[in-house]
Design a protein that fits this description.
Strand content: 5-15%
Shape: elongated
Distance between the termini: 86 Å
Radius of gyration: 39 Å
Helix content: 40-55%
Structural class: mainly alpha
C-alpha cells in the first residue's frame, strides 16, 4: 500500500495506491513509488491526486488489455523489463481514452503526460527503465491537449431570475427556521411524556438527536395513509423511496432547524453574484475565522489554492437599504458585531447565513467551515451534519434550479444549460464590466491577466456585444467624419450672416459670423469655423492641409462669392488627373473631386457668372507651396 496524506482546509485527506488490486502489481508498485517520490519532492498541494489517478487508470487498462489484445500475462509488465512492450500499451491506452472522452477533452493528454512524467523521473534518477520506454517518456503525448468550449455567462434576464429566486428561497428558509425555533421552545421529549405525533415534540427530538426513521417505525403507523393529516402535510409531494414516509418526515422536521445543502444554495448563488473576484471554491470553502465583521461591513480572507494566493477583501455595506419585510437585527459573530443595514450585500448575506446555520453548530460537531448542512443518513436513519460540498446527486446547482416548479409541475426557473455554477462568476464579472464601461481591463478584473481574459472571458456573448457596440461607435464616428460636408451659405443668408437668427441657424456663433464676414477665417477657398480643431491635424494646432482638404471638412463654410476660386481649384484637380497616375490621383484627389462636383452641381445656375468673373478679373489660383509639394507629385 502506497499512502500519502495531505491537509486541505484543516482536514486530512489520504491518497492511496494499492498495487495488489491490479494484476500488473509490479508495474503498479514501480509507478506508485515514483508517484510518492515526485509528490513529496515537488510539494504538490493536491497530494498528487491527478498522478495517482493516472497510475490507477493505466494499470486498470494494462489488466484489461494484455490478456485480450496481446495474449500476455499482466504480471509480466514492468518498467525495467521488455517482455511487454509498454510503449504500444501506452499508445493504445491514449487512443482508447480519446475515443472515450473525445478530442475536445484534455483528460487523455493530461493522463498520458503525468504517466510519462513519472516514467521519465525514474529514468533520470538512474533506476532501470527499458531504453525504448525511456525515449518514449521524453516525447510528448500523441494527441494534443483538447480545448473545451469556454462557458458563456448567463443572460441578464437569467441573472435577475436567479437572483430573485435565491432571495425568495432565503426568505422562505428564514421563515421556516423561525417557525422551527418557536416549535422547539414548546416541544418536549417524546420519549418521556411527549407525543410522537406532535410536531413540536418531533422538532425537539430532532434537535436532541432522538428523531430517526427507526424511532418513527416504532411509534407511528406502518403506512403513511394512517398518519395524521398534519404529519402527511409535511411530506414532499414525491412518493419515492427516499423522499416520503419516515425518511421524508425526518428530513422535513430536520429542515425546520437545520438547513440542508439545497437550502444553502441560494446563499452560494447570491454570494457569487456579489463577489465577482471569488471563485466558487473560494466561496464555499470559507472558514468562520476568515470572515471578520465590523460596523461597516465584512472582511473576507480568500484562499485561491491553485494560484497560491491569499487575499483579504473588504466588502462595505454602506448605502444598502433593507427591503420591506426583511429583518435586520444585529448578529454577533466571532466577537464582532455587524450593525450595518446591508441585507443582500456580502456582509448581509454572510450574517444571515451564519445565523441560519447557528443551530447546526450547536447540535453537531461540524468544524470551522462556513457552509455546513445536515442530511439524513440511511444507515442510522437520523440526521448528520458536516461541511457542504454541493457535489452529490440532488445537491448540485442544477438540482436547485430543477427543484423550482409551478403548480402544474412545470419548471418555474428556466435557465439555459449548462447549469454550471462557474457561469455565475462570469455573469458577475460581465455585470461589472458593463457598469464600468466594458473595457478589457474591466472585464478581466484585478485577479486576471489579459491572456486569461482572452481565453476565458472574451468569448462571452456580452463581451461580443460590447465589442460590437464599440466597433459600431468607432465606425459611425469615421463615417460621420468621412461623409461630413461643408456648409454652403446662400447669397441672401450671406448678406444677413451677422444677424443672430441666421448665424445660429448655420451653427455659427455671432463672433464667428462677424469674423467670416471680415475675412478673418478665410483659408484660401473656404472659410473655417475653427482652424485649430481640424480632423486632419492634432488638436490645438493650426490646420496645415488647407485649402486642399477643406472640401471634405465639416468645419468649412462656403460663400457663393468664393465660387471663382473653387472653379479654378476644380481646373487644377483636372490637370492633376493628367499628371498623376490614376491610382495616385484617386488616392490624393478623389474625395475632394467628388465633393467639389457635388458642390458645384448645387450652384449650377451661378457657374456662368463665376466663370465670367474669372475672365474679367484675370484671376489665378494661389496654392501654398507645401500643398503643391505634398499633393501634386
Amino acid at each position: 500500500m502506497r499512502k500519502l496524506t495531505y491537509d486541505k482546509r484543516d482536514k486530512a485527506i489520504q491518497v492511496v495506491i494499492n498495487p495488489t488490486q491490479f494484476q500488473c502489481s509490479t508495474l503498479a508498485a514501480q509507478l506508485a513509488d515514483e508517484w510518492l517520490i515526485h509528490t513529496r519532492a515537488a510539494g504538490l498541494l493536491s497530494g498528487g491526486q491527478a498522478h495517482a489517478a493516472a497510475v490507477r487508470r493505466f494499470c486498470e487498462f494494462v489488466d484489461e488489455r494484455l490478456p485480450g489484445g496481446q495474449g500476455m500475462d499482466p504480471k509480466l509488465a514492468r518498467l525495467d523489463g521488455d517482455l511487454v512492450d509498454l510503449v504500444d500499451v501506452i499508445h493504445d491506452w491514449e487512443s482508447s481514452m480519446v475515443q472515450e472522452f473525445g478530442l475536445e477533452k484534455s483528460t487523455p493528454y493530461s493522463m498520458v503526460r503525468l504517466l510519462l512524467l513519472l516514467i521519465g523521473r525514474r529514468a533520470s534518477a538512474g533506476l532501470p527503465v527499458v531504453e525504448k520506454l525511456r525515449l518514449r517518456a521524453e516525447a510528448p503525448p500523441v494527441f494534443k491537449r483538447g480545448r473545451n468550449k469556454p462557458l458563456d455567462e448567463f443572460s441578464n434576464a437569467e441573472r435577475i431570475a436567479l437572483r430573485d429566486t435565491a432571495r425568495a428561497d432565503v426568505r422562505e428558509l428564514e421563515a421556516r427556521l423561525k417557525r422551527g425555533a418557536e416549535l422547539l421552545e414548546r416541544g418536549r421529549d417524546p420519549r418521556d411524556g411527549g407525543d410522537w405525533q406532535n410536531i413540536a415534540d418531533l422538532v425537539w427530538a430532532s434537535r436532541h438527536g432522538a428523531l430517526t426513521t427507526h424511532a418513527l417505525f416504532d411509534h407511528l403507523p406502518k403506512h403513511t395513509k394512517w398518519w395524521p393529516q398534519h404529519l402527511t402535510a409535511l411530506l414532499p409531494p414525491e412518493r419515492g423511496r427516499n423522499a416520503s414516509g419516515r425518511s421524508g418526515l425526518v428530513n422535513a422536521i430536520g429542515r425546520m432547524l437545520f438547513p440542508n445543502e439545497l437550502d444553502l444554495m441560494p446563499f452560494r448563488v447570491l454570494l457569487l453574484l456579489e463577489m465577482p473576484d471569488a471563485t466558487p471554491e473560494e466561496v464555499h470553502d470559507l472558514m468562520l475565522d476568515e470572515v471578520e465583521f465590523t460596523s461597516a461591513g465584512v472582511r473576507v480572507v480568500q484562499r485561491k489554492m491553485r494560484a497560491w494566493r491569499v487575499r483579504a477583501d473588504f466588502h462595505p455595506a454602506a448605502g444598502e437599504e433593507a427591503p420591506q419585510g426583511d429583518e435586520d437585527d444585529s448578529i454577533v459573530v466571532s466577537e464582532h458585531t455587524y450593525t450595518g443595514d446591508g441585507v443582500w450585500g456580502v456582509a448581509g448575506l454572510l450574517r444571515r447565513m451564519i445565523a441560519a446555520t447557528a443551530t447546526i453548530r450547536e447540535a453537531f460537531e461540524v468544524g470551522p467551515r462556513l457552509f455546513v448542512s445536515a442530511q439524513i443518513v440511511r444507515a442510522s436513519g437520523g440526521l448528520v451534519a458536516g461541511p457542504a460540498t454541493f457535489r452529490r446527486n440532488g445537491r448540485r446547482f442544477s438540482s436547485w434550479i430543477a427543484s423550482h416548479r409551478d403548480e402544474q409541475g412545470e419548471p418555474s426557473l428556466v435557465i439555459g444549460e449548462p447549469h454550471e455554477v462557474r457561469r455565475l462568476r462570469k455573469t458577475a464579472k460581465t455585470v461589472r464590466a458593463v457598469a464600468l464601461g466594458g473595457t478589457v481591463t474591466d472585464l478581466a478584473g484585478d485577479d486576471h491577466h489579459v491572456e486569461v481574459f482572452r481565453t476565458h472571458y472574451a468569448h462571452g456573448t456580452t463581451a461580443h456585444i460590447l465589442a460590437g457596440r464599440a466597433i459600431n461607435r468607432a465606425q459611425q464616428w469615421v463615417f460621420h467624419r468621412a461623409s461630413a460636408k461643408p456648409v454652403l451659405v446662400a447669397p441672401e443668408a450671406e448678406a444677413r450672416l451677422q444677424e443672430p437668427e441666421v448665424s445660429e441657424g448655420l451653427g455659427l456663433s455671432e463672433e464667428k459670423a462677424k469674423a467670416m464676414v471680415a475675412g478673418e477665417l478665410d483659408m484660401g477657398m473656404t472659410n473655417c469655423r475653427n482652424p485649430y480643431d481640424s480632423q486632419f491635424t492634432q488638436a490645438g494646432k493650426l490646420c496645415h492641409v488647407a485649402p486642399a482638404m477643406c472640401l471634405v471638412c465639416p468645419n468649412a463654410v462656403i460663400f457663393t462669392s468664393q465660387l471663382p476660386r473653387l472653379l479654378l481649384f476644380a481646373d487644377h484637380v483636372e490637370r492633376m488627373r493628367v499628371v498623376l497616375d490614376p491610382p495616385r490621383w484617386q488616392a490624393v484627389w478623389g474625395r475632394q473631386h467628388a465633393a467639389l462636383m457635388e458642390l458645384l452641381s448645387e450652384c449650377a445656375d451661378k457657374i456662368p457668372a463665376a466663370r465670367q468673373e474669372i475672365a474679367d478679373q484675370v484671376l489665378a489660383l494661389d496654392l501654398p507651396l507645401g500643398l503643391r509639394s505634398e499633393f501634386d507629385r
